[in-house]
Specification:
Pfam families: DEDD_Tnp_IS110, Transposase_20. This is IS110 family transposase. The protein is an alpha/beta fold and 408 residues long. It has 3 domains: 122 residues, Nucleotidyltransferase, domain 5, CATH 3.30.420; 134 residues; 134 residues, no CATH class. The chain is 60% helix and 10% strand. It is built from 19 helices and 7 strands. The strands form 2 sheets. It has a 5-stranded mixed beta sheet with strand order 3-2-1-4-5. Helix 5 packs across helix 13. The longest helix has 37 residues. The model has no long low-confidence stretch (mean pLDDT 90).
Length: 408
């Protein structure tokens, strides 16, 4: 068996090769790309016997994505994606000085897959379809997060020089296309006060707003209210910043719509999509996000418990001496946790069983978030069973045990 630590950077990889006893066989710095991966395979061949099974080559690396990782998996090597924080804690065995080097990290990674491999999670062998869903689902969510950040910057800018706009466009939502067009058309208080009702109504008409004449009048009145003014050059500078943020939001809105269609297309093409969509509280976007983060490797989760642990819905017990606390699991996949919370919230209306279970948790004096997390935890277990048996969600079966207890 060969144990390899791979400390990757943007343009190179520092690797260390060990045998099963921990003896260092080789170290090398390899370039990123086809040339580097070919040299990697040559190192493996040089230090292994002719009959070495690729599965006997174990690689520890601090990422689970990219063409390099896919090339290692394609050959049949065992690849473990290790959290950088785990590596940092492991290195404290060697010393507490905090010293860091690429060779030192490669050595620690090799030691980790040799000594603690049973405690690490191998990179899942997800299908190409699941990987495609992951790429578009994460890109879509990242664009939404970026839109939120850009909106906050725009809002803060308006508060500093044009607060009337925040009041005027409240009924439209500031991230909507028509509100942004009006801001670009009149980014200063003086210019906005000169907008006519017909000009405002024309923008609302393109956005297909209802009651646009009434809304146009309300917006015009709000923009013409008296307010404190800044000197001309300062207001012009703020207007330039506002215009830039507004144009960026328009572009983000457009690309979010495009990516949403990509998410739906890739998700619906996956064979597990029907099972996910049968679950309460899951639509196409939420289903795509959950599938993307769980993956579709049938061997990744041996039971519902490791799936719940990875989801972050199961609690963590901290026991020491007479102290015994059960707390929420905060070290988790935040993208997955967000999607599961959305599912749990929606399931309260879609599933009578989920609602009863939630009410039961609340009756036990659990807080809102804790009760919702318990619903999500239960739904993850149900999803695991559906995927394992290749069956669709059934309300009566899913909550039969809890319904019996409730009746009793």
């Amino acid at each position: 068996m060969l144990l390899i630590g791979d400390d990757w950077a943007e343009d190179h990889h520092d690797v260390e090769v060990q045998d099963a006893t921990g003896r260092r066989l080789a170290t090398a710095r390899l370039p990123e790309g086809a040339e580097g991966i070919a040299t990697f395979h040559e190192l493996v061949a040089k230090h292994s016997g002719e009959d070495l099974d690729p599965a006997d080559v174990v690689v520890g690396i601090e990422t689970d994505r990219g063409t390099w990782v896919q090339a290692l998996l394609a050959v049949g090597y065992q690849v473990y994606a290790i959290n950088p924080r785990q590596v940092a804690r492991f290195k404290e065995r060697y010393g507490t000085s905090g010293a860091k080097s690429d060779k030192g990290d490669a050595h620690a990674l090799a030691d980790m897959v040799r000594i603690d491999r049973d405690q690490l999670r191998p990179v899942a062998g997800d299908s190409a379809q699941a990987q495609a869903v992951k790429v578009v689902a994460r890109a879509h969510q990242t664009l939404i997060w970026e839109r939120t950040r850009t909106f906050q910057r725009l809002r803060n800018t308006l508060r500093e020089y044009f607060p009337a706009a925040l009041n005027a466009y409240t009924s439209l939502e500031l991230t909507s296309t028509d509100a942004l067009e009006l801001l670009i058309k009149a980014p200063t208080p003086q210019a906005a006060a000169k907008l006519t009702r017909s000009q405002i109504a024309a923008v609302l008409s393109r956005a297909r707003r209802h009651n646009r004449d009434q809304k146009a009048g309300a917006i015009q009145a709000a923009l013409r209210e008296k307010q404190l003014e800044l000197p001309g050059p300062v207001a012009a500078a703020y207007a330039a910043a506002t215009t830039a943020h507004a144009r960026l939001l328009l572009a983000l809105n457009e690309q979010i719509t495009v990516m949403e269609e990509q998410v739906k297309a890739h998700f619906l093409a996956h064979p597990d999509a029907e099972i996910y969509l049968s679950m309460p509280g899951i639509g196409e976007i939420t289903g795509a996000r959950v599938l993307a983060e769980f993956g579709d490797d049938p061997t990744r989760y041996s039971s519902a418990k490791p799936r719940k642990n990875y989801a972050g819905t199961s609690p963590v017990t901290r026991a020491s001496g007479k102290s015994h606390n059960v707390q929420a699991r905060y070290v988790r996949n935040n993208r997955l946790a967000d999607a599961l919370q959305r599912q749990a919230f929606s399931a309260l209306r879609a599933s009578p069983g989920a609602r009863r279970y939630y009410d039961k948790q609340r009756a036990r004096e659990a807080g809102y978030n804790a009760a919702l997390r318990q619903v999500g935890n239960r739904l993850v277990g149900i999803l695991h069973g559906c995927l394992k048996t290749r069956t669709h969600y059934d309300e009566a079966t899913a909550w039969s045990h809890h319904a019996h207890l409730h009746a009793a």
